[in-house]
Automatic annotation (TrEMBL):
Listed name of the protein: Amidohydrolase family protein
Pfam families with a match to the protein in the record: Amidohydro_1
Family annotation (InterPro entries): Amidohydro-rel, Metal-dep_hydrolase_composite, Metal_Hydrolase, Metallo-dep_Hydrolase, OTAase-like
Ranges where the Amidohydrolase-related domain occurs: 54-389
Organism: Brevibacillus ruminantium
Length: 396
């Protein structure tokens, strides 16, 4: 069916501007026409007056964990869940992402490689869900961060074999743990884990297969190890100094800051059930994390937006809240939207298909009430969500 949305504000993330009173025509084959005015030249089977609304590309959450339930201690849940439990939860979460206007997720860690199988089920049309860019199980050192869901590997040869195993399983990217983390008992978020050489071996295997890499990295030493190893993205990047930022600029390394993850942990009341150890480990990094984000932003480090959905109280669909935090720390609203659309699509090598409203691209679209350029939380006022030109969520 050919659809037309007219008299709507259209967010042009390529030129980082808005087209007022725009018209967009699209169908299942892609975006057919973009024009200014109330009619356009193309006819349509269905027309919708978008007065007072904004149309933008479907959002991309660059850091999620399908199958992690956002409970106070999600790794306890992961240890207990069967493969089927994990798959059913991923299906439910996928619908939540779509309902929030998130048409693509980059999944950076799920037990049993369920995210890869889930991606395949969505692509085959067996279930409805967002586009999934999947890592499957992360690669960690023995006892390393996220080990309940991961492949444990020590030394270059084991890491290389684990990387090849994940690529064989169908991973779109490889997820590596460069430091400890808040949610894994017995690990220190600031301590380095996989070495530079171990991660370099994984990055080489990903490069050979035309894939990308992501490194969980909170502490400075681990961040620098990951950058030198050649990862595509630094996840969190809580402690950055001038040298680390310069390294990222020189190598084109992206930052996915996930400011909301630790913020949500520390916002909970004392009786929330979050283990005291998690709070103790998160507290020293929250303010430093924001300072690092501001320093990276001022320096021009490339960024994409992600939430770390699945961590405590971090339910699917909070990407607008993450963008608002990025905005509060100095990022312009249009740049925050760019980080959740075209920037993410670019580092995932999907920018020829998604991430912007351009003729010929897939019609992944989000229609919201109001103007997110004046208030990013208007992104939560979802009216319609399209994936591949098909209406997949509608909120009257």
């Amino acid at each position: 069916m050919r659809r037309k949305i007219f008299n709507v504000r259209v967010i042009d993330v390529v030129n980082r501007q808005a087209i007022e009173n725009g018209t967009v025509v699209f169908d299942e084959s892609g975006i057919i026409e973009i024009s200014q005015g109330t009619s356009g030249t193309e006819t349509a089977d269905w027309e919708f007056d978008g007065t007072g609304m904004t149309l933008l590309p479907g959002l991309i959450d660059s850091h999620v964990h399908l199958g992690m339930n956002a409970s106070p201690d999600p790794f306890q849940q992961i240890k207990a869940d069967s493969e089927a439990d994990t798959a059913f939860l991923a299906c439910s979460q996928g619908r939540q992402f779509l309902s929030a206007g998130i048409t693509t997720v980059r999944n950076v860690g799920t037990r049993y490689n369920v995210d890869i199988v889930y991606r395949q089920a969505v692509e085959r049309g067996l279930i409805e869900g967002p586009r999934v860019y999947a890592s499957g199980q992360p690669i960690v050192m023995t006892g390393g961060h996220c080990h309940p869901m991961a492949i444990e590997a020590d030394g270059a040869d084991e890491v290389r074999k684990a990387a090849r195993r994940q690529l064989k399983a169908g991973a779109d990217l490889l997820k590596l743990m460069a430091t400890g983390g808040v949610l894994t008992t017995g690990t220190d978020p600031g301590s380095a884990q996989l070495s530079e050489w171990e991660m370099k071996c994984a990055c080489e295997e990903a490069d050979h297969a035309g894939k990308t890499t992501a490194a969980h990295a909170i502490g400075l030493d681990g961040i620098k190890n990951a950058i030198r190893a050649g990862v595509t993205t630094i996840e969190h990047g809580s402690v950055l100094d001038e040298e680390a930022i310069q390294m990222m600029l020189e190598r084109g390394t992206y930052l996915v800051p996930t400011l909301i993850a630790a913020t949500l942990i520390l916002r909970q009341p004392p009786d929330s059930g979050i283990p005291e150890d998690f709070i103790r480990k998160a507290e020293p990094f929250v303010q430093r994390h924001r300072e690092s984000f501001r320093d990276a932003l001022r320096s021009g480090v490339k960024m994409a937006a992600g939430t770390d959905a699945g961590t405590p109280f971090n339910t699917p669909g909070l990407l607008a809240d993450e963008l608002q935090l990025m905005h509060e720390e100095g990022m312009a609203a249009i740049d925050a939207i760019h980080a959740a659309t075209l920037s993410a699509a670019t580092f995932m090598k999907l920018d020829d298909r998604i991430g912007s409203i351009e003729v010929g691209k897939w019609a992944d679209l989000l229609l919201v009430e109001g103007n997110p350029l004046s208030d990013l939380l208007h992104l939560k006022q979802v009216r319609q969500v399209y994936k591949g030109g098909l209406l997949c969520a509608h909120h009257p």
